[in-house]
Amino acid sequence: MPGCSVPPCDRQRFSVECPSRLLFDQIADKWSMMVLTVLDGGPLRFNAIRRHLEGITQKALTQCLRRLERNGLLSRRVIPASPVGVEYEITPLGRSLQPPFKALYRWTLDHFDEVEAARLRFDDQPTA
């Protein structure tokens, strides 16, 4: 990586020192992928995002949005109203993740029955 003091990453393992590992962790976690998917349709306010993500806490969503903003994947705009609002939108860099995310989602739909069958086979095995 240009200008990086960390040596190039070993492609055969995920070294702790590899900066790409941290980035991968941050964009591949479940909330980040879901937030970027929710924002695919256009900018939304915090509470609108939260309504789309059943089970996410306010703290977890705040942390996720900050990580995504820090990584340049979304932008934050303050809306000077009463009360003040905040709107989030995917950046062009964040949009570049949409094709692989959509492909992964499509894979989950296409292979769900196979995965479910594997789960049932696994669960039916006697425990050792």
List the helices and strands and how they pair.
Blueprint: H1 19-28, H2 30-38, E1 44-45, H3 46-52, H4 58-70, E2 74-79, E3 85-90, H5 92-95, H6 98-124
Antiparallel strand pairs: 1-3, 2-3
Assign an overall shape.
globular
What does the radius of gyration come to? 18 Å
What is the H/E string?
A: HHEHHEEHH
Share in β-strands: 5-15%
Count of DSSP E strands?
3
> Total number of helical segments?
6
The main sheet comes to: 3 strands, antiparallel
Helix content: 40-55%
Question: Which regions have little confidence, pLDDT < 50, spanning 5+ residues?
Answer: none
Give your account of this protein's structure:
With 128 residues, the protein is mainly α. It is 55% helix and 11% strand. The protein has 6 helices and 3 strands, in the order ααβααββαα. It has helices at 19-28, 30-38, 46-52, 58-70, 92-95, 98-124, and strands at 44-45, 74-79, 85-90. Strands 1-3-2 form a 3-stranded antiparallel sheet. A hairpin with a 5-residue loop joins strand 2 and strand 3. The longest helix has 27 residues, at 98-124. The chain is globular. It starts with 18 loop residues before the first helix and ends with a helix. The mean pLDDT is 88.
Features:
128 residues; mainly alpha; three-stranded antiparallel beta sheet; 3 strands; 11% strand; globular
Short précis:
With 128 residues, the chain is mostly helical.
